[in-house]
Write a structure and sequence with these properties.
single chain, 10 helices, 12% strand
Length: 186
């Protein structure tokens, strides 16, 4: 039986994380915090708190970014580019020390008109961090591309950030595919 850990913000918590265990089936044990992992710094802190539950993981899949790129005050994202990249690399190192394979899911796009999110910023943050994570041996689950193919169909109209049922299903399927690909490399 393979042990999979899912970490991430609400895109995981109320999104793809609700479907992945069922899609993986009974040959997998899936653990994920009941908490929204929020900012990359919060996720980093959570690794300490969740270390017991994460122990023995074969594969750890994580996403972050929505909270980090959030621009509530019009003066830029909460987490600057350099800090985001350095924190993601720190998280990657810690997760690589705890699991045989680590997967990073790119930050998903927001719907046009989101008051505090900008897809250009999301794409920039993804573009900055992905190559550095790949250099460390982290596999990439490009959820940005999955959702971008039909943003209006995949992202809810009411809050312009969370996934619709269709978006959840697509991201869950992509996550399971990434887990199976990682499993081939174990």
């Amino acid at each position: 039986m393979k042990k999979v850990v899912l970490l991430g913000d609400s895109i995981r918590l109320i999104g793809y994380g609700t479907k992945v265990p069922e899609l993986l089936g009974p040959d997998y044990t899936v653990w994920q915090p009941e908490d929204n992992c929020r900012f990359i710094a919060y996720l980093l802190r959570g690794i300490f708190d969740w270390s017991e539950e994460m122990a023995g993981a074969d594969i750890i899949h994580w996403n972050s970014g929505e909270w980090d790129i959030c621009n509530l005050f019009g003066d830029g994202p909460f987490t600057g580019e350099n800090e985001y990249v350095s924190q993601c690399l720190r998280v990657a190192d810690l997760l690589l020390a705890r699991a045989k394979k680590v997967i990073f899911a790119t930050t998903t796009p927001v719907r046009q008109g989101h008051p505090h999110g900008d897809n250009r910023v999301i794409q920039r943050y993804n573009a900055l961090v992905v190559p550095k994570l790949v250099q460390k041996g982290v596999l990439i689950n490009d959820l940005f591309q999955v959702v971008q193919q039909d943003i209006n169909g995949n992202v809810r109209e009411d809050d312009r950030i969370h996934l619709t049922d269709k978006g959840i299903a697509l991201c869950a399927e992509a996550t399971v595919k990434a887990i199976h690909q990682a499993e081939q490399e174990l």
